[in-house]
Amino acid sequence: MKVTDNFLWGGAISAAQTEGNYLTDGRLPANFDYLPLNDQRLKPVYSDDRQSILRTDKDYYPSRTGINFYQTYKEDLKLLSKLGINSFRFSISWSRIFPTGEEAEPNEVGLRFYENVLTELESYQIEPIVTISHFDLPIHLVEKYNGWESRQLVDLYVHYATTVMTRFKGRIKYWIPFNEMNMVLHIPFIGGGVTFNSETNPLQIQYQAGHHQLLANARTIEIGKAINPQAQFGAMLAAGKTYAYTCKPTDVFAAIKSERENLFFSDVQVFGEYPSFTAHFFKENHLKIIITEEDKRLLKKNTVDFVSFSYYSSACTSADTEGLEQVATNGFMTLRNPYLPKGKSVWQNDPLGLRITLNQLHDRYRKPLFIVENGLGTQDELIGTNISDTYRIDYLREHIKELLRAINEDGIEVMGYLMWGIIDLTSVSEGRISKRYGVVYVELDDQGHGSGQRLPKASYDWYQKVVKSQGQAAFDDQGVMESGESYDK
């Protein structure tokens, strides 16, 4: 099975997880730079410990060093170009362009860096897919406004987005204003730069922050289309089908409710209005979200051109979860699905779940779909200069096969496939580079020590064949799961 020649095969990274150099050339810290390498990373930030989290230097903060992509982007992109990829997703660091987020004029050095990245990509004929905000906002805006809780951030973000869209007019076709907008409900400090105290309703802040991001998204589309009518704008969500734990009707309805909440933000971005269930949901949870008539007009008029998403694994839920085993998925915990094996990763492997998710999103939205993150985060063993990551090949192969089946057998329009962390980076959930995703190994440990040398893994050669064959190599290569069970039974 193959795809058309214009299919986008590539990889993805984010500024916050790769660039490092967090105080270089005028940049100031972002929220992501205050995520320590400990078990507090994903926990909501409350006001009684906020200052200790935002001001302490007793911990190691992986984002501040990353993998030094700010200095090594030329050699990194050259190595990735040899894969034969035709697309590359990266993000722009807001605080590299507007260090506090409130400057009237941008930091020219920061703009030139991304200009140079685009020049390198163009020299290899690699299409850029650019995320304007990938879990990244200046820490000044967290301290002054409590992040996206404040409507003030809409204007500040739009000023930033307008600046980069104007500067790079004609050089970037595909824009993603926000990464995984629905994650403001699961990892709110990372997704929205918001903090809480004992007197606030966290849901109130999270949904109000989400509304402000939706407004900023719509205004960015409106302005971006005026700057360049050929530009395409996409929603981006953390996706994955939620299964009912059993066929018991209450479990099935629990899964429906879970999916409604997870798809809420993409619903608004696609349809231009809030889903009908939200009126009752807001009332039931005592939420008073400020939504003006002008807000409604703006959302309705400026919807997205495509729906992009991350997929790592499916989820599972029940009406009564007490006593049931839980496992990790992308940014939150879910019930362990007894019908899925657990491979060499923190989540359960569910390749067919990708095809199911593609069908679900296609049926719901009828927009072109774009897989902009998929991959396996796990430890690799470096022996000499070799990394035999057959488990990653297994994961990627089976997901790519289900992607191609969705295209060829189900008739779903998919723009492309970007593997996440195509070069090793620091993970969001753990901050550890040892939770590796890439087909390129970066010789650094979790504390940032090491040569930084880049080494292709076994998966590098394999992915190169997949790209060259337009996916056919995934079917030519028959693999076996870690448990010994064939994927093709």
UniProtKB/TrEMBL annotation:
Active site: residue positions: 373
GO BP, sorted A to Z: carbohydrate catabolic process
Gene Ontology MF terms in the entry: beta-glucosidase activity
One Pfam family from the record: Glyco_hydro_1
Keywords from the named record: Glycosidase, Hydrolase
Positions in coiled-coil regions: none
InterPro entries tied to this protein: GH, Glyco_hydro_1, Glyco_hydro_1_AS
GO cellular component, one term: cytosol
Family matches, as Gene3D superfamilies: Glycosidases
Protein family: Belongs to the glycosyl hydrolase 1 family.
PANTHER family reported in the protein's UniProt record: 6-PHOSPHO-BETA-GLUCOSIDASE, GLYCOSYL HYDROLASE
Official protein name in the record: Family 1 glycosylhydrolase
Source organism phylogeny: Bacteria, Bacillati, Bacillota, Bacilli, Lactobacillales
